[in-house]
Amino acid sequence: MPAKSNVSLVGFMGSGKTASGQELARLLRFEFLDSDQLIQAEAGLTVAEIFEKHGEPKFREMEKALAEKMRGMKRTVWATGGGAWLNAQIRQLLQENSWSFWLKVSADQSWKRVSSHLSQRPLLARAADPLAEISRKLQERDATYALADFRVDTDHKTPREVAAEIMERIRTDKLLDKF
Fold it and tell me: Distance (Å, rounded) from C-alpha 154 to C-alpha 43?
């Protein structure tokens, strides 16, 4: 098995995958990839529009295709969509050549971070009680997120602090060749 040369950030919406990933990529001098942004660019639609017009299964197919492309990549920080890690095939593809970090967020903190742009969150947009829906989904997903190589609690931390914590783990455990 080839050495892992990438970092994947997994976790629930509002955990800070994109913002922390951008900072981590800067620190590592790696390329930053955000699966939601790449899918939107490819489809010419927002994530919410993809869900509305084509359904969640189509979106998950697009996530899987991106994870397959990652096989040939090196020196990338990959911010996955909140549901990508739940798919066993995507999870396996990511685990093959990336160190996975679960950015763990509480329901309250997730709500604070996403409540101002619910229309961009198709899994919450139609919920009668979005905070309750976040709590329910976190309970469903936490055991699968816990399959990641490492966990970083992101509540009350800035993206810079989260990235620094991941960098420390990379250095301490010598996860990547350059450290």
Answer: 30
C-alpha span between 121 and 47 (Å, rounded): 8
Q: Would you state the pLDDT for residue 75?
A: 95
Beta pairing partners, 84 = none
- CB-based contact 63:35 (threshold 8 Å): yes
Query: If DSSP codes are grouped into helix, strand and coil, which group holds residue 154?
Result: coil
Cα–Cα dist 126/104, whole Å = 24
Nearest CA-CA partner of 162 in 116, 80, 81, 101: 101
Query: How many CB atoms neighbour CB 159 within 10 A?
Result: 18
Q: Which residue positions in the chain have pLDDT lower than 50? A: 1
What is the model's pTM? 0.92
Output the domain CATH number for residue 15. Answer: 3.40.50.300
Strand partners, 34: 79
- Token pair in block for residue 177: 């060749």
Tell me what pLDDT residue 1 has. 40
- Does 1 map to a domain? no
The span from the CA of 65 to the CA of 59, in Å, is 10
Q: Which positions ≥6 away from 117 have C-beta within 8 Å? A: none
- If one counts the domains in the chain, the total is 1
18: exposed, middle or buried (C-beta count within 10 Å: 0-12, 13-18, 19+)?
middle
77, β-bridge pairs: 7, 32
